[in-house]
Amino acid sequence: MASWPPWHEFESGAPEMAAAAAMLWPGTTASGRGQPAPPGTPCFPIAFLATARPDGSPRLHPFCPVLAGGRLLAAIPRSSPKGNDLRREPRCAIHALPGPEDDELSIRARAREAGNDPDLRAAALAVVTRSGAGGMIQTVSNDPIFEFDVLRVDTARWLDIGQPGTPRSAGPGRPGASCHPGQISIHARSAELGQYRSTGLNGGDSRPSWIGGRAHGVIPAR
């Protein structure tokens, strides 16, 4: 069975997209590198975690991801249903809050409970302790730790939002977006997209390899 890559392999395999992730998670990234969060930004900003309920229907939760030792982690209270969701069905999705230019970061991952790894908990605890965030220190000290191995990462950056000549239309658009059947565009060439995913096996190695690409222009509506 394939061993899916941790966060640091995504960072080394897709540095441009990792930089986009760092822009949306500046406090999380800085804290994971042992640096102070940039002024005016939280150390651990809220993101959203999508899991599957026992009946297969979706569940969406706010949570605070932690980067420690190059691994993407979360401390999930035992009383939270999302922990049991992940134990039963580890496939999940993470979405960052939109950036100042409506930048997007979406991660598909496999979660696994890793709290029995004392080194991993110690690394996470060191990160949150440096931040001084009391609630994070408490939950990382006491609650189950989950690691998210990366299956796929998607990013999008919207250009020239709200500029003259880029009217907003009704429908599934964004501010400054012109909507057409089946697509959203901003001006003619306005979206910068990235996508990386792990797939297959790299020769005889058990590690999946990264494939991906970037595109400019119109993107499909969702």
Features:
222 residues, alpha+beta, 9-stranded antiparallel sheet, disordered C terminus
Give a short summary of the structure.
25% of the residues lie in helices and 34% in strands. By secondary structure, it is an alpha+beta fold. The strands form 2 sheets. Strands 1, 2, 3, 4, 5, 6, 7, 10 and 11 form a 9-stranded antiparallel beta sheet that branches. The chain has a 3-stranded antiparallel beta sheet with strand order 8-9-12, with no helix packed on it.
Task: Describe the protein's architecture and organization.
By secondary structure, this protein is an alpha+beta fold. The protein is 25% helix and 34% strand. The strands form two sheets. Strands 1, 2, 3, 4, 5, 6, 7, 10 and 11 form a nine-stranded antiparallel beta sheet that branches. The chain has a three-stranded antiparallel beta sheet with strand order 8-9-12, with no helix packed on it. It is globular.
